[in-house]
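Structure ticket #2291
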Amino acid sequence: MKNLILAFCLILLPLTAVAKNTPSDWGQNGHRSTAQIAQQYLKKNTLKRVQEILKGESLAVASTFSDEIKSDRAFRKYNAWHYINIDEGASIAQINNLKEENIVWAIEKCVEVLKDSKHSEQEQEFHLKMLIHLVGDLHQPMHVGRAEDRGGNDIDVIWFGKPSNLHRVWDSEMIASYDMSFTELAEHRPSLNKNQIMSLQEGTPAEWALESQKIATKLYADASKNYNFRYSYMYEWFPVLKAQLEKGGLRLAKILNEIYG
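Resolution: structure written out below.
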């Protein structure tokens, strides 16, 4: 019996370690859903070029690359690319004039590299994968949260009876609770006409960051009133989360079509 218990523990320990080190940043299903939506709106020429650069890999598979490289110290210099801290009332000009690297700066850097054919295929592949991921991150409101609480990572909450934090709830726990695959999330969404799509695609990364920041402000206010998140939280906020996934996909498609279309 002791040997049986020991064997069970040895099996369980790796699983626990994986759970503790699960990457954040929209979680895998969030990123893959956004990328899947984007792929549906790519022009024929755009899709062909993207698949060439990605060596046949789908946008959904490529979308998690930026989280997968975080364990490699050589890539830690890109950590600041995943977020931006914006003060309430900040202007577009203030965001664009920030000197430190941030997600808005990084998206524009990726676009710059991808538009320049002088860059190697390896550089283009890296920056394309980063772009796919970062446009997703930009639409996760807590990636445009406050610096003092690390985008909600230090805001403790209870998620269906278990300890969590505001950032993690928005990265992955709401999506996990909804219990749909990334393809189901991408497919089961309101149908939009051409004018609605074009309207959602309007703007720049800086403007989209302000849009996410306004949502983050509401999330902070809501969490200060009630930190015990249950079904009512899902009912109120999951439609917003799904809308952000869709916006991210449509806007990523717009950027890629402008580069390659």
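Closing remark: Residues 25-260 form a domain with the P1 Nuclease fold (CATH 1.10.575.10).
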